[in-house]
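The record is passed on directly below:
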Amino acid sequence: MSRYEEIETFVQVVDAGSITAAADRIRVAKSAVSRRIKELEKRLGVQLLHRSSRNQTLTDTGQALYDRSVELLQDWVETEAVASSSTMNLAGKLKLSTPLSFGNAHLSPAILDFMRLHPDVQVDVDFTDRSVDLVAEGFDLTIRIGNLSDSSLIARKLASVCMVVVGSPDLVKRQRRLEHPDDLLDFEECVYGHRKTSSWYYKDMHGVEGSLNLKPRLFTTSGEFLRDATVAGEGILRIPRFIVYENLKDGSLVELLPDYDWGDLPLSAIYPPTKHLSPRVRAFIDFLVERFRGTPYWDLAIR
């Protein structure tokens, strides 16, 4: 009896709800199915199922093994399909995490296009700005803006995220002089609540570095609310251009001191190191690399 058959039988028993139903489904004798489950439990040294005359339930260990086994079996089927066909037939679940603002505005259309290309792929997306634990929470990958702090993970860059300083036209008109970052100190700042530092760092046209600290006017964890508050004239904002590029196009916001470099951050797909990356995960990352190749459209839109 191969380990693959043991795992496959275990998944069938759980899905069917009983050993008898699983035996009917896979057309194997009930005694053979029961023997496979017992051999699997003996080999692992754990109990996977609570059995009674009326029903069966998974133990905690059994639930964990079932969840992982479903993924492994999907990967196996997918890998065989890729090896036996020139057309990639992807299937199974793809679980990912993405920042809320970027995910809603720019990743969502990419995900939908990928799903149309691969209708057998089930996608589970967590839109969040928190830092997720890929392995502990069962994510295949996460999309993140910023430098990778965990050296045990792998990051594949998708694009660069350029930071800009913006304000409403009416607010900016009140400032007579706007030639140097220090001139921004007369304004109040709308602050992203998760930001670790209160300083704005910049480089001038000659590469000379500097920083400044503005008086905060508003704190929020919503990039969209920051943008809307800035449009309403409640302060100025240092923010990724992808959040405000449409406002810069329609004139509801203006870019301040555009000749200064306000920094940029990598946009990356991050995933755990593995020798056998799932074909659907690899295909999705390749899809995103191609999707965001070159200058991002949110930068092209205002050039």
The longest strand covers residues 154-167. The mean pLDDT is 85. The radius of gyration is 26 Å.
